[in-house]
Amino acid sequence: MTDDMREDRQVAILFLCLGNICRSPLAEGAARAAFAEAGIAAHLDSAGTGDWHVGHPPDLRAQAEARRRGADISDLRARQLRRRDFFDFDLILAADETNLADALAIRPADATAELKLMLDLVPGREGESVTDPYYGTDDGFGATWDDVAAVAASLVARSRG
Ligand code: 4NP
């Protein structure tokens, strides 16, 4: 993202997980839907701490769950977290403690982005992790969507002020 893109002062939020093919694309999809529904413009993106899936679309089970909930995430492509993200985004939201620790380990000393867990934004769920559905059954993706939809609703509420 260039400085030009930030001149509009829209809030910029990056969702972070390990592979960027399950939890963070679902979070991006839920947030895109929630912000669109609220009529609020925002810069939304997602990334992974790992590079195994770079360039890949979201896991087919994640795509299917998103579709069931009315969101199309099929055009998203995985990318890895990069240094610039700590300056381009206002808020980086990690799915779990490992993602958070891995991001902290590479965070530049002069980073401007706030870094926290996704569920820190949901009252009563602070400190909790979004369950990683990758190695589980298909219904795990439903639980993941429920989690990230709660995060998206909190983000919209914060943006409304
Ligand atoms: P994600 O899920 O971090 O939610 O995208 C995973 C995706 C891939 C792997 C692990 C978790 N993996 O080991 O390849």
Descriptive account of the structure:
This protein is of the alpha/beta class and 161 residues long. 38% of the residues lie in helices and 12% in strands. α1 crosses α5 (139-160). The site of 4-nitrophenyl phosphate has 11 residues, from loops.
Output the keywords.
about 160 residues, alpha/beta, globular, Rossmann fold, 4-stranded parallel β-sheet, single chain, binds 4-nitrophenyl phosphate
Question: Helix and strand succession?
Answer: EHEHHEHEH
Q: Using the coordinates above, name the CATH class.
A: Alpha Beta
- Parts with pLDDT < 50 across at least 5 consecutive residues: none
Major β-sheet profile: 4 strands, parallel
Overall morphology? globular
Write the layout of secondary structure elements.
Layout: E1 12-17, H1 23-38, E2 43-48, H2 60-68, H3 85-88, E3 91-94, H4 97-106, E4 114-117, H5 139-160
Helix pairs in contact: 1-5
4-nitrophenyl phosphate is lined by residues 17-23, 48, 52, 132, 134.
Short description:
The chain has 161 residues and is α/β, with parallel strands linked by helices. It has 5 helices and 4 strands, in the order βαβααβαβα.
